[in-house]
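Researcher: Quick test of sequence recovery. Tokens follow.
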């Protein structure tokens, strides 16, 4: 529980290395006594690797989770998170058919608790809308975003929670960019960045700053682009200094070393018995 809690904290702060260090330690402990929670942590590890930019590791851990017998018994918010993570990964790989199917599966997951049901629906609607925007289906994405906005406004949903991050303003911004409505797009990019800053979801701040820099640069708004670019570079430098170069959690190599040491100890014991 401590490792899971620390992993969640570091994920919000954007420290992917420490996030994975804690989540992998939790998974190793869970593997022998709680298979459902073990699968859940594998899914989260895959999602974090996807956010960090290591697609190979993301695919490995998400597929490892799906291969576990306990995967079929996942329910509630854990199942919603799993399908949303898979949808985002497929969308990033431009496999939009599967991305849409995973978003639909998230929307169709049953939640007993009403608040979690609406929170999960809002995240699912935003993710499905994001996939539709990638497919250039603007008219189909609009009502999904409207419904998600209604849920967000009525329940005052947090930006980060059990289903992951509710990136509704960023998705609205992409919608308005596709409609060539610069004023609304700018408003939503600024709102997304402000929300991420207030909620201390540090991993999203550089992503939104990068989008703002590109937005202002494309429109010749040099001073705005430079101002946000300075903040982006400073933030990115601090992140890169903490993350390492290869985007592989330090604990991954520690586990290999532990396995090798265990193998050596077993051989020594066998020799002693002989």
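Model:
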């Amino acid at each position: 529980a401590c490792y899971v809690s620390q992993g969640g904290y570091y994920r919000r702060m954007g420290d992917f290395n420490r996030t994975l260090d804690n989540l992998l330690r939790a998974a190793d402990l869970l593997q022998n006594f709680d298979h459902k929670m073990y699968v859940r942590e594998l899914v989260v590890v895959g999602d974090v690797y996807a956010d960090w930019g290591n697609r190979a590791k993301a695919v490995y851990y998400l597929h490892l989770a799906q291969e576990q017998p306990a995967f079929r018994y996942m329910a509630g918010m854990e199942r919603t998170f799993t399908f949303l993570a898979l949808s985002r990964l497929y969308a990033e790989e431009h496999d939009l058919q599967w991305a849409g199917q995973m978003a639909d599966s998230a929307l169709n997951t049953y939640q007993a608790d009403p608040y979690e049901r609406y929170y999960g629906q809002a995240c699912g609607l935003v993710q499905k809308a994001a996939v539709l925007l990638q497919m250039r289906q603007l008219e189909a994405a609009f009502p999904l975003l409207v419904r998600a906005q209604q849920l967000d406004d009525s329940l005052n949903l947090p930006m980060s929670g059990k289903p992951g991050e509710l990136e509704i303003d960023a998705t609205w911004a992409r919608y308005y960019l596709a409609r060539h409505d610069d004023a609304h797009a700018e408003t939503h990019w600024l709102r997304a960045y402000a929300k991420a800053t207030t909620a201390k979801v540090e991993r999203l701040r550089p992503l939104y700053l990068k989008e703002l820099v590109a937005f202002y640069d494309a429109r010749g708004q040099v001073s705005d682009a430079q101002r946000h670019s300075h903040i982006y570079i400073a933030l990115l430098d601090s992140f890169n200094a903490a993350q390492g170069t290869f985007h592989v959690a330090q604990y991954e190599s520690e586990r290999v070393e532990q396995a090798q040491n265990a193998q050596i100890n077993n051989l020594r014991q066998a020799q002693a018995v002989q």
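Residues 108 and 121 are 9 Å apart (CA to CA).
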